[in-house]
Write a structure and sequence with these properties.
This protein is mainly beta and 238 residues long. The chain has one domain. Helices cover 13% and strands 44% of the residues. The chain contains 3 helices and 8 strands. Strands 1, 2, 3, 6, 7 and 8 form a 6-stranded mixed beta sheet that branches. The protein has a two-stranded antiparallel sheet with strand order 4-5.
């Protein structure tokens, strides 16, 4: 079987989950106000006066996370040649009613030896699995970076209403499938015959987590900076 032949796949549909926003915009603004003195630091220690930094905006968006669980397995045969040493004076060996002529060894061996070569088939099994959480760029993130919250009962409706105002993050349709495939699919080079091979995705979801962006302006310099606040926990996102 050629290594370029397609691998049988079983991939579930991607599920959409939208977390409920548990933080009021006012709370997000208060959280941002606590951080504003750190936004315009110069030379590592020069800070503007508090009254010089004003909040100019509070906006909400959704941060997407991709969750995927997959498995790859292959049950296959490969061809293998076994070299067996025999005595120097042996001309023929009969095994399982099959005759094998003895040969001189390809590499120098102990004095007084000849060899027979047996062509056989070995059956092997390889399997790998993974559970991944990815950000919108397809990079792996730790599970504790993804907040937990109750889900909207009608996620698609919530996203539609939101995207009409500000737009929805566009995520490639099969990005997470490609990432996990590249990590766990390892088709062996020496394949003579495949018994069974499968790439499976058993769990697949995109989670939209609410995020506030609180914008501040330094009224003295005109510079603008923003603080990102988790819409579930009210914690500042680094």
């Amino acid at each position: 079987m050629s290594a370029v032949e397609s691998i049988p796949e079983k991939v579930v549909e991607r599920k959409t989950i939208v977390y409920k926003t548990l933080v009021d915009p006012t709370v997000a603004k208060i959280t941002g106000e606590k951080m504003k003195d750190k936004l315009f630091v110069r030379l590592g220690f020069l800070k503007p006066r508090p009254e010089e930094v004003k909040c100019v905006s509070v906006s909400k968006s959704y941060e997407p996370y991709l969750v995927v669980r997959g498995k790859y397995s292959i049950d296959y045969y490969r061809k293998r040649v076994y070299t067996v040493d025999v005595d120097e004076d042996v001309q023929e060996v009969i095994l399982l009613k099959q005759s094998f002529k003895t040969l001189s060894p390809e590499k120098p061996a102990k004095k007084g030896l000849r060899v027979i070569r047996l062509v056989g088939m070995e059956r092997l099994f390889y399997e790998d699995a993974a559970y991944l959480i990815l950000d919108k760029m397809g990079h792996e993130v730790a599970p504790d970076q993804v907040p937990e919250a109750p889900s909207e009962e009608e996620p698609e409706k919530t996203l539609t209403e939101f995207s009409e105002k500000i737009g929805k993050p566009e995520i490639p349709a099969d990005m997470e499938v490609g990432v996990i495939r590249s990590k766990i699919v390892r088709r062996p080079q020496e394949i003579e015959r495949v018994v069974k091979e499968i790439f499976e995705i058993s769990e697949r979801a995109i989670i939209y987590a609410p995020v506030y962006e609180v914008g501040f302006q330094n009224t003295k310099t005109g510079g603008v900076r923003a603080v990102r606040v988790d819409g579930i926990t009210a914690k500042v996102i680094q």
